Amino acid sequence: MTFDFTNYTFSFFISLLSAILGIGYPLILDNIRKIDDCYNSTRFSERLLRERCYRFYVIFLVITIIYSFVSPFIMHYFDTTTKCDLVLVIHAFFMLSLVYYALRLFNVISIYINPKLLETRIQTPPIDPPNKGGDSPNGPTDGGGNPISPNGGEDLFCLVDLANYASKNANFELFNNCISKIQKYGYAERQATILNKEYNVSPLLRQVFRQIIQNSNDTNSIYFYNSNFISLFFYNSLEEDYILGEDTMKLIWYNLFNIISRDNYDNFISYWNTTNQYCTFKLDYYKTNYSNESSYYKFYERFHEFHYMVGALLVNSKNSKMIKHMLFFSNSLPAKYPLIPSSLSSIIDALANIENNNLKNPFLYSCYK
Known about the structure:
72% helix, mainly alpha, two-stranded parallel ribbon, single chain, 18 helices
């Protein structure tokens, strides 16, 4: 029995359904693009296009449409019913696979439209524990021991954009969930990348933090603008014994420069109060218990020089309100000012040290500009 072009309705309906799904493909792309408008970011639509269900949907759509045109001619040249039925079974399989992945894709799109469901779907990249990845000179590694590239951490940037969306829409629960995931990744990375008791933030996390700092400049992003995530991350680790490397200090300076240039007084207060606590409970211990030649004591001196330059930046910016808080804030009784020289001689010594170190340490040139 040969195939009859005019009397094989089952094959026709399968081909018609394939064509309908093919025509609907541009509508799916249009809905994906609307996700960009919802979150004011292109990262989510790019992430959706990398989803497995989307890739398989496109593959089966192309195969099914091509097979819909080819299968009638194949069956027309077959002379047995069994061969024609086999062609139809293969066609039906492709069609069912296409419908299945279309339904999966519609479900994923609905998740991306709902911010709360989207947050639960986004996961940070895994990091090996210190005994596996801690000795890697290339920074944090994934579960297979391979270095995590900036592209591999794209979900971190999605979390930042989602947190920014929550911040602008006063959704504190969503904002807090996103920030908590970023913090959890950052703490794991810090444990895995501390070399010789010195922590230099990785290129990936540095880009993430810079994005957070840029979001903090937007007054409409209320939660980012009114909180200082950077100082809380680096200075609220009193139980961990490490010093901050030059790359980390440069990032903190970049954060402070943005805070001061934007006259974000509340953010500066949060930074300075946290820094005072960090200096009182951690850096003073370094000064008391380590020799002058140790890396810990040198970090103690460098940290103070760093904040002397913060004061210079405030003076240059003529920001008297921030200067007043810096000079008079204390979190102890009697009042104690660990980041400020307490006498004229200490002021002169600090100035002399900065001038001498400018010639010896290029960090001061590269950072304070």
